[in-house]
Write a structure and sequence with these properties.
The complex is a heterodimer. Chain A is of the alpha+beta class. Chain A has one domain: 3-Layer(aba) Sandwich (Protein Transport Mog1p, Chain A). In chain A, the strands form 2 sheets. Chain A has a 7-stranded antiparallel β-sheet with strand order 3-4-5-9-8-7-6, sandwiched between helices. A two-stranded antiparallel sheet of chain A has the order 2-10. Chain B is built from 7 helices and 19 strands. Chain B is of the alpha+beta class. The chains are: A alpha+beta, B alpha+beta. At the A-B interface, helix 1, strand 1, helix 2, strand 5 and strand 9 of A face helix 1, helix 4, helix 5, strand 4 and strand 5 of B.
Chain lengths: 205, 394
């Protein structure tokens, strides 16, 4: 009886040691999973309770059937819950991404959204007083819109990142056109982007 | 056979072995603490305490690995075996030694619980700006190559390759051995270059080599292999050059790095993929949105007095939607995870940092403590009763 007990105890000890030896050395493996889009909850956050977020507090507005002329070389990506349309333009030296987003109301106001964009290119926030100097105007087929042109640097590399953003306020919604990417790619695509914005129309549904 | 077994049992269960193990443990803790200055906390944990043998590599011969000390796992395992063997060898009438048995069983549970915690615990950080919403946290030390199919409108399919595999494949000798294939990927990934800590530049500075990337953001960049970041607060910025290959052709090569935060897009076979090297992510079904971060300091100083995060918790599959206040000593416990108020961003007063800990073996220290306490109580009570009986005997 006692001998059997000893054997059992040692078997358990050896098993523990072997388990540790095997599992402790290499637990790394490729994993595959599905996740909602990063902006998924934005469209689902219908009943927000007093958050300070200008964008995440609202659901996507239903746009009035827009149409536009897509510049040559732009590749259309699938839309997401937040972005009405997405494009990518690839050049041998880099890429730029273009998104069109529509949100109800004023979506937190121009200042909050400009500061959100500034953060995306590693620039600090500005105040209301600086807004006039930062924001230009552009005429589109829908109306006059605000245009921002922001250039920042990646903190690690110093490589410049540029963002062109257009904010077009409508009576019940706000349209956002954004191009972000490597600064020289964005510079070459600037005219195409502005033309894309200016050719956008809203067709009655 | 029985004689050999009994001798083995006597050696393994000897008190001398216990003392030797405890002495090694003291030396290990002492040297490990000193080594943190050079290696940093994470590497010391891995190389000293979560290992069987501690190796030393001479600085002039990096290919040598000389064993110098038993690692934490080896000491713990031998102590556990020593404990069991001592019980079997010496405590023959266990029925009369219930207190001792319980105490030792509690110690065994404590040791096993610590092993289990090492194996199963994950710690990660969730960085949230006010208004931001996330359903994932990120590892502070590990990275992954995320190859993400973003073609579908609602969900993304992520194939995440851990950094350790990238490093291992890069070290492989033949080009064919450097190729990673997976049934969920329509192409294979060849690891052309892996740097544990790299510095990137868009200028050809001294000591920098031109990135071999042919596509994406890394074309025309320059990179330099940095030594692994020293010190507990050091943070490596790894980089890799990967080539996507099909059986018939190469799709090109891309430089990926945590220093390049924007995913790089690849079109292949009618589907859109994005590549990025990012901190390893841990997804969960619950979303947290930072509503308000409060960070108070003592007047006239930078010493934090109080900081707390009011978060909105959303669980789409159950309809749960409520607000929670997370503050020091008052974490959010949700499912098998605990969200602690861990820190803040010194450069942005609206950003909080939560530490997310999943430790399935968390009850073991409590169970072990209760067992040891009960065992000692029984033992001392028995002694006390015996002592009182003897004293009252004329």
């Amino acid at each position: 009886m006692r001998r059997a007990l000893c054997h059992s105890a040692y078997a358990v000890s050896v098993a523990i040691l072997l388990t540790l030896a095997v599992s402790g050395c290499n637990r790394e493996k490729i994993v595959v999973y599905r996740v909602p889009k990063d902006d998924w909850p934005v469209a689902h956050a219908q009943n927000n309770h007093s958050t300070n977020a200008p964008l995440t507090s609202t659901a996507k507005a239903a746009p009035a059937n827009p149409s536009w002329t897509v510049p040559a070389g732009w590749v259309e990506l699938p839309p997401t819950q937040l972005a009405l349309a997405r494009f990518v333009v690839s050049e041998p030296v880099g890429q730029a991404q273009i998104t069109v987003t529509v949100l109800p109301g004023n979506a937190g106001g121009l200042l909050a959204n400009v500061n959100r964009w500034r953060a995306q290119v590693y620039l600090g926030p500005i105040t209301e007083a600086d807004l006039e100097r930062t924001v230009g105007k552009i005429k589109t087929q829908i109306g006059t819109a605000s245009l921002v042109d922001l250039t920042g640097s990646l903190p690690e590399t110093g490589r410049q990142v540029r963002l062109l953003g257009v904010v077009l306020e409508q009576s019940d919604s706000t349209w956002f056109f954004k191009m972000i990417g490597q600064a020289d790619v964005v510079a070459r695509q600037k005219d195409a982007f502005l033309q894309f914005v200016q050719t956008t129309r809203l067709n009655p549904q | 056979m029985k004689v050999i077994f009994n001798k083995l049992l006597a050696v393994l269960g000897s008190l001398k072995l216990t003392v030797v193990c405890l002495a090694f443990a003291i030396v290990l803790v002492f040297i490990g603490t000193l080594a943190q200055v050079q290696l940093g906390l994470y590497r010391v944990q891995c190389e000293f305490f979560r290992s069987f043998i501690v190796f030393w590599t001479p600085s002039d011969k990096p290919e040598l690995k000389i064993p110098v000390l038993p690692g934490g796992y080896l000491i713990g395992s031998v102590l556990l075996a020593n404990l069991i063997a001592a019980h079997l060898a010496r405590f023959r009438t266990a029925r009369n030694k219930l207190g001792g048995l319980l105490t030792h069983a509690g110690l065994a549970v404590l040791l096993l619980g610590q092993f289990a915690a090492d194996m199963l615990t994950t710690e990660s950080h969730m960085r949230l700006a006010e208004g931001e919403m996330k359903n994932y946290s990120e590892s502070p030390v590990s990275t992954e190559l995320a190859v993400v199919d973003v073609t579908e409108p609602d969900t993304d399919k992520v194939v995440a390759i851990p950094d350790s595999l990238l490093a291992r494949w890069c070290r492989a000798r033949g080009a064919s051995e450097q190729i990673i294939s997976h049934p969920e990927l329509p192409f294979s990934v060849r690891v052309v270059l892996w740097l544990q800590n790299a510095r990137l530049s868009d200028q050809p500075l001294a000591g920098f080599d031109k990135s071999p990337a042919t596509h994406g953001f890394g074309v025309g960049l320059w990179l330099r292999d940095e030594s692994v970041a020293p010190g507990s607060n050091g943070r490596n910025v790894p980089a890799a050059v990967i080539e996507l290959v099909t059986p018939t052709r190469s799709l090109g090569s891309w430089l990926v790095s945590e220093a390049i935060p924007h995913p790089q897009t690849v079109e292949f076979d009618g589907r859109t993929w994005q590549l990025s090297l990012r901190p390893r992510r841990y997804y969960r079904p619950v979303w947290l949105q930072l509503v308000k971060f409060t960070h108070e300091k003592y007047p006239g100083t930078d010493i934090p007095r109080h900081f707390s995060s009011r978060v909105r918790l959303i669980r789409p599959d159950t309809g749960e939607d409520r607000q929670v206040l997370i503050k020091l000593n008052n974490p959010l416990r949700y499912g098998a995870e605990t969200f602690y108020q861990a820190g803040y961003d010194e450069t942005d007063p609206s950003v909080t940092v939560l530490q997310v800990v999943r430790n399935p073996s968390w009850p073991t220290p409590y169970v072990a403590g209760a067992m040891v306490g009960l065992g000692l109580l029984i033992q001392f009570t028995k002694r006390l009763v015996g002592f009182l009986n003897n004293r009252n005997t004329p």
